Predict the 3D structure of the following.
Amino acid sequence: MLDALTLVMAYYDNAQMLHRHCREWAQYPKVLRDRLHIIIVDDASPQFPAAVVLEEHKADLPKLLQLYRVKPNIPWNQDGARNLAMMKCKTVWAFMTDMDHLLPADQVRKVFEFPAMMGQYYMPDQHLTNGQSLNRPHPNSYLMSRPDFWTMGGYDEDFAGYYGTDGNFRRCAKGAGLVELSIKDFHTVVYRQTDIWDANTKDWGRKLTEYHVSYNPVLRKKLRLAPYRAERPVRFEYSQVL
C-alpha cells in the first residue's frame, strides 16, 4: 500500500477537461485527499491558463496541489512538463497520465492499495466514458517511483517539439533495467473529443505532419540507438503559480 502519491499531468488549453478533473477530485475520500499530491504543469497555454480554471474550484481542491507554468510555448513539450513535475515531486510514487485520462474516485483508492515495487512501473487499463474496457493500457500512463524515473534520466528533451516519443521513454526505461507491467488492478477513464471537446491538444499536428518525430532525421536516427539515459532535464524557464 502506498503511503502517499503524486498525480502528475501536463495541461495545454484543456479548460473544460480540467474542470472535469476538479469535480472528480472533490469526490475523493478525505483520507486519500490528505495523502494525494497533485502537480499540474501548464505548458504555456496561450488562451485558457490552468490557473483560471483552478481558481473557480479553489474551495474544493486537494490542499496538496501545485501548479507550474512553462514560459516558452514549445510544441509537444509534455515530456519536459513531466520532467518538471517529477523534479518537484516529493512522494516516492507518482502516477503520470495525460489530461484526457481521468482517475475516478473509485479507482484512486485502488491505486493507494496497489502493491507497487521499486524497479517496476505499471501501465493500467483504460475505460471509455461508457464503462467499456479497452483491454489495453494507455501508452503514456505510468505508476512509477521517483527514484526509478531519475535512474533513467526522465524524458529526453531533445525530442521537445515533436509528437510520438512515448515509445522512446519506455525503451530507455527497459534499458535502465526497469520492468514494465500492464495491469488491471485499477484503470483510467479516457475522454474523447466527443465527450469533452478540449480533452486533446489541437494546436499542434500529430501523425503525417511536420511535428511528428518521424519527419526529423536527427531524432529518427536517435530512436534507432541503443537505450540510453536522458540528460539535462527542464531546459526551459518556468514559474510556480500555486
Q: What stands out?
A: Residues 35 and 109 are 11 Å apart (CA to CA). The mean pLDDT is 95. The first helix runs from residue 15 to 25. The chain has one domain: 5-231.
